């Protein structure tokens, strides 16, 4: 991918996504940015970038995402940061895979990368619905045909400042904050995570800075074809953010 990259972000109004959007808009590497979602960033927060033509926004219906034109932008990088509660696990993850599939260009010569915000413990064979849904979503993304699939599996997200906090999040946050004194990788600030995801999207898995430890997850799809994707955990994400 050459200079003048383009990026699509789905889920830019969430705790992590909003910081990725800011990084993309401030970037000189990414010259064209798309923000698609159920809702988009208020215009008074990004008016300068809309006026310049760098940012295109579109409110979409995830029930009809295939008809929303996500692939028309021929994006170099697709960031997906759609939030999912444990209660909504399963059905909500279908939206993630469908959105990624809709954003995949039909041009075989155009290289594309997808960067997805998953969760610690994601495992397609897990007995727990939430972590199993996340793991199956990761495999679903890797099965679409992107040239590079990068998955982030962060632990507890600190400093999220959500408009609608998840039940018990404040209590858990305080407990995790105390634990982080002796185990720093039990949490990661959303701004740090966003910086790391931005950097991974910019350079790709093959060009990550030296010393960033990743995991290659391999699996076979329903046709028996072996596929793989790159996983970045909390410790690696914190380290990678220092290169952003």
Automatic annotation (TrEMBL):
Ranges of residues in domain NAD(P)-binding: 11-162
InterPro entries on file:
NAD(P)-bd_dom, NAD(P)-bd_dom_sf
Localization, per the record, is:
Mitochondrion outer membrane
Name the family the entry cites: Belongs to the FMP52 family.
Tell me how this protein sits in the membrane. Peripheral membrane protein
Q: Which residues cross the membrane?
A: none
What is the protein's name according to its record?
NAD(P)-binding domain-containing protein
SUPFAM superfamilies referenced in this protein's UniProt entry, alphabetically:
NAD(P)-binding Rossmann-fold domains
Give the GO biological process terms: import into nucleus
Q: What is the lineage of its organism?
A: Eukaryota, Fungi, Dikarya, Basidiomycota, Agaricomycotina
GO terms under cellular component: mitochondrial outer membrane
């Amino acid at each position: 991918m050459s200079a003048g990259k383009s990026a699509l972000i789905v889920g830019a109004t969430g705790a992590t996504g909003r910081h990725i959007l800011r990084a993309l808009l401030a970037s000189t590497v990414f010259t064209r940015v798309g923000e698609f979602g159920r809702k988009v960033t208020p215009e008074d927060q990004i008016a300068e970038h809309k006026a310049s033509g760098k940012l295109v926004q579109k409110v979409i219906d995830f029930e009809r995402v295939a008809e929303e034109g996500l692939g028309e932008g021929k994006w170099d990088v697709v960031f997906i940061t759609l939030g999912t509660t444990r209660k909504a696990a399963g059905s909500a993850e279908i939206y993630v895979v469908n959105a990624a599939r809709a954003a995949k260009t039909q041009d075989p010569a155009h290289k594309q990368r997808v960067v997805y915000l998953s969760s610690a413990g994601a495992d397609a064979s897990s007995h727990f619905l939430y972590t199993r849904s996340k793991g199956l979503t990761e495999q679903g993304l890797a099965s679409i045909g992107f040239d590079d699939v990068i998955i982030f599996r962060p632990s507890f997200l600190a400093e999220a400042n959500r408009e609608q906090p998840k039940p018990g999040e404040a209590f858990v946050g305080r407990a995790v904050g105390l634990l982080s004194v002796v185990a720093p990788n039990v949490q990661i600030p959303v701004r740090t995570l966003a910086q790391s995801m931005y950097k991974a999207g910019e350079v790709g898995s093959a060009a990550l800075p030296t010393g960033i430890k990743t995991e290659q997850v391999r699996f076979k799809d329903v046709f028996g074809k072996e596929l793989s994707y790159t996983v970045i955990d909390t410790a690696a994400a914190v380290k990678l953010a220092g290169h952003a």
